[in-house]
Amino acid sequence: MAVRGAAKGKTRARLRWAGAGLLLGVIALGAGWWHLRHWTPPRSVFPVQGVEIGAGDGAVDWKALKAVGADFVYLDASAGAFARDPAFAENLDAARTAKLQVGAVHRYDPCQPAERQAANFVTIVPRDAKLLPPAIALDDLADTCPVRMGEAAVESELTTFLNEIETHTGKAALLKLSPAFEARYHIAARLDRNLWLMRTRFQPNYAGRPWSLWTANPALHTAAGEGAVKWIVVQP
Questions:
Q1: Given this model, what pLDDT does residue 77 score?
Q2: What is the mean pLDDT of the chain?
Q3: What is the torsion angle, in degrees rounded to the nearest 10, for the CA atoms of residue 174, residue 180, residue 183 and residue 188?
Q4: Residues 56, 215 contacting (CB under 8 angstroms)
Q5: Residue of 103, 45, 93 lying closest to 71 (CA atoms)
Q6: Which end of the chain, N or C, is less packed with Cβ atoms under 10 Å?
Q7: pLDDT at residue 55 above 80?
Q8: What are the helix (H) ranges across the chain?
Q9: What is the SS3 assignment for 132-185?
Q10: Residues 166-196: pLDDT tens digits?
Q11: Is residue 136 within 8 Å of 110, Cβ to Cβ?
């Protein structure tokens, strides 16, 4: 009986230790989740920081965004040949009123003609020297295009698009490259433009050359709105 009692005692002790370990793991996971929701790179390393606001991000308190440390904002403006953010003009005015620098983002679709996409962009984005360089979000691949698009064709169409919008804005565009797009088309080595890369928490290196902008936290929670925002830093 004494042996059985000792064995049961050891089993209970192991269960208690296992429970304690599980609890500590849950606490650590929760702490890490909370930290990431509120983490931004240190200002001592990256003095200039900002956000990207998408069409689906809802209402934003622009003054609060400025107060939490945003120096600039990139706003979704257009996508492909037809889509536009109906709130772009209103957001542009509101962000400027809050003393934020503003840039426009076009979400490029390799399946749609470059000229039509450029026309879509220039229709909604004003010719304004105070705007930041335009950013071209390169994420969608050409795998589902009705007509086959090889690497050379994707590069050629993208170059046409860039030339047209850069003529309109008077500034060289930023290439906002996703890892998947870069892995497929190797655009960073083919087009001489500044890069905007993405990687949560750790600096990205998938383009093979230095970046100018980095989305460091794609889901930062701030007092500026109910939803998360994409937090960006500028290479010093």
A1: 97
A2: 89
A3: 0
A4: no
A5: 103
A6: N
A7: no
A8: 2-38, 62-67, 88-97, 114-124, 151-169, 179-185, 187-190
A9: CCCEEEECCCCCCCCCCCCHHHHHHHHHHHHHHHHHHHCCCCEEEECHHHHHHH
A10: 999 999 999 999 999 999 999 999 999 999 9
A11: no
Summarize pLDDT for 204-236 with one digit per residue, the tens.
999 999 999 999 999 999 887 777 899 999 999
- Which letter does DSSP use for residue 64 in this model? H
Name the residue with tokens 């929670």. 221
Q: Which two tokens stand for residue 205?
A: 């290196």
Residue 8, both tokens = 């049961």
φ/ψ of 23, rounded to 5, equals: -65, -45
Name the token pair of 79: 């996508």
Name the residue among 208, 224, 169 with its Cα closest to residue 50.
Answer: 224
Cα–Cα distance, 51 to 2 (Å, whole number): 66
